[in-house]
Amino acid sequence: MELTTKDFIKDYKNQFQSMYAYSYEEGSTEQLYNALGLLVKNYISTPWKETRETYIKNSVKQVFYFSMEFLPGRQLKSNAYNLGLLDTVKEGLTELGLSFDELSEAEVDPALGNGGLGRLASCFMDSLASLSMAGNGNGIRYQYGLFRQKFVDGYQVELPENWLRYRNVWETSNDKSTCMVRFGGNVWLERNKQGYLEAKYENTLNVLAVPYDTPMVGYRNDKVNNLRLWSAEIPVEEENNYHTIEETEPIKEITQVLYPDDSNYEGRLLRLKQEYFMVSAGVQSIIRHFRKYNVPRKNIPDKVAIHINDTHPALVVPELMRILIDEERLSWEQAWEITFKTCSYTNHTILREALEKWPIDMMKELLPRIYMIIEEINRRFVENTLPLYGERITWQTAILQNGVVNMAHMAVIGSHSVNGVAQLHTDILMNDVLKDFFELYPERFNNKTNGITQRRWVHLANPGLTQLLDDKIGEDWKKNPSELKVFKGQEKDKQTLKQLAAIKLENKKRLADHIEKVKGIKVNPNAIFDVQIKRLHAYKRQHLNLLHILHRYLEIKQNPSVDYAPRVFIFGAKAAPSYLYAKQIIKVINSLAELVNNDPDVGDKLKVVFFENYGVSLAEKIIPAADVSEQISLASMEASGTSNMKLMANGALTLATLDGANIEIRDFVGGDNIFVFGLTSPEVYELKAAQTYNARDLYENNSNIHRALNALKDGTIPNLQDEGHAIFESLVHFNDEYFVLKDFDSYVQAQEDIDSLYKDQNEWTRKSLLNIASSAPFSADYTIKKYADDIWKVKSCAVEHEGVQPLDE
Ligand code: 7GP
């Protein structure tokens, strides 16, 4: 969009004054930020409106991405950037004596997700808008985001993240689009005068779903999509039935907290309420649109694609059936055909403990009508499957099993497409986790390897690299990431390599300053910055990283002149509050950091930094400064990973097991430009099947392992209670579920290879360049194009400006 600095300055002064009734010169940082955010939102409002009108006018097919989690990160900078206004805004503020960077740091980072799944949803929203595709997000406006993590004595402590305490300038509450969601009560079917079976309800708990819309701004294409987050409120007409604050609690609590668990499932009633609340409101608002424009219901699959982001929104299947049958009066067969063609499902984990299974009794009581429909879906499924595939497959794939509703089974049965998020992960779904379904419906299965948006993770997070790329290969890569491969041509250019190394060093200096500021630790910017940033989980093996650091420390103590390249090990990770083992790992890493960072024998050779409260904004600071990307999950366990992609795009070299998307990263960048170690996925499967693994043997016979493990419990690491013992026990007594000890030697070897290579700065930077140049396939734009072509069948849509007739209202 076009805007002069002069106009911006005028607009900004007016905006500030109209909000606060005094001059911006007297404003606090928060006020200055709020005024700027609202002004940028004003600029967005026209393309936002026009986009919506264009979709309606052209009746384009729209995607609704249903997700319990979104992690958009701060939006001021990215919105201004995508609109093409960032430079103007920065200049204007400078003229007013204000700093854009300072103002943008005042924005609270909405933590409405746990980790990879939520961040992927936000990368997808960015790509959908940037590709001019009609893509809407549907989720929950949690009053509290993921907990704020603090370390006290090295222990994780969880504090509430009251992100809405200050106003959220990006959202618009949309009172005219509320929906009613019903829970509990009695439900029965009654034949009415026209002969229809009608669902009758009594004594239900009625909850008003209020939508809050947030613009999702496309990159320089005047396209703005919608992220709709629902908040639970008391229906106005029922306000008089509530007499005390306590009585209103059961309603308000529905959208109060985000469950701070990824990769784990707990059958909590409130969580089921959240899932149905979000699903029902989302589906109702879609169908309302069809009623309004009088679109024949059978055309729904041509006009709408509903995506089920992991099983959390899988109730979409029975909810859509309910509305089509009970409200739209379609037959079961018609409703099923529409539902099945409309829905698609992505699985994000193979961890058994993450697969949702709701007790039937709970489902029946909370969602009686929905449960009736699930029963019927299951009955028909069994009826059709049994004669063709026999007992074993039928009962193993049924939705209702042993007193529970299996949500993954419902999602697969109710969707025309089922995908994993990296090739290996999809293979594992087909051959293991969902193998019986693969036999029933091979045509539904497909792979969609994850991707990330370069706009946030390179253009904005790493302006130095972005400028270098612009200078060396032109600006086309920004719209068309495949152009990045042209950068390979510079691999031998000394000048380019020097510039690239200088940019990395600058980024590292900036991070080093930040480390000193927030952690009080002085680190050497010329050291290798080695980064592991992701949720804390045993399968991700932060404790393998920990054991290696401990090993290095002990080596240095034994031989102070050992030839290690200086290294800073950087961690960012939250542990689920109930996940004791993960919290113990955090504590041990923090205590080890304490020991290592203060030992004069160690000096620059080793520093350990564990950031508090890892999230999107912190990732934006860390990633551009990384040299080494730790992707060390046990092969077969990490569905894809996405920090691997962000780090690669910023020139970090990957240290990886052949797991998730690491395999594809290796394939694109070439085996010489990545450090691979450890068991492969087939080897892991084999070793598990053979049941011959004996971790104690490794402890007893491998001197490095022996020494490091002993140091966990002999007082070497200060200030531990039993945390070191707990890790020791899990590895030695409980036979090391994630084969940490098995992979230890090859991990240590790979780490030494990293040291050797780093000594040859030219060669290191050349490999770094090749990583950047090979990162295009991991652009979310490509991922989204594949979803759009293969699953959703949606196309890019040019937005019409001016003179578009508003059809809605
Ligand atoms: C994550 C996976 O662990 C990660 O490998 C993947 O890159 C990411 O999804 C995006 O696909 N899963 C979750 O965050 C999660 O909560 C449990 O999964 C449902």
From TrEMBL:
It is found in: Cytoplasm. One of its GO terms (cellular component) is cytoplasm. It catalyses: [(1->4)-alpha-D-glucosyl](n) + phosphate = [(1->4)-alpha-D-glucosyl](n-1) + alpha-D-glucose 1-phosphate. One of its GO terms (molecular function) is glycogen phosphorylase activity. Its main location: cytoplasm. InterPro entries: Glycg_phsphrylas, Glyco_trans_35. CDD domains: GT35_Glycogen_Phosphorylase. Transmembrane segments: none annotated. The keyword Metal-binding does not apply. Its EC number is 2.4.1.1. Its cofactor is pyridoxal 5'-phosphate. The modification N6-(pyridoxal phosphate)lysine is found at residue 646. Pfam families: Phosphorylase. It is an enzyme of class 2 (transferase). Allosteric enzyme that catalyzes the rate-limiting step in glycogen catabolism, the phosphorolytic cleavage of glycogen to produce glucose-1-phosphate, and plays a central role in maintaining cellular and organismal glucose homeostasis. Belongs to the glycogen phosphorylase family. This is Alpha-1,4 glucan phosphorylase.
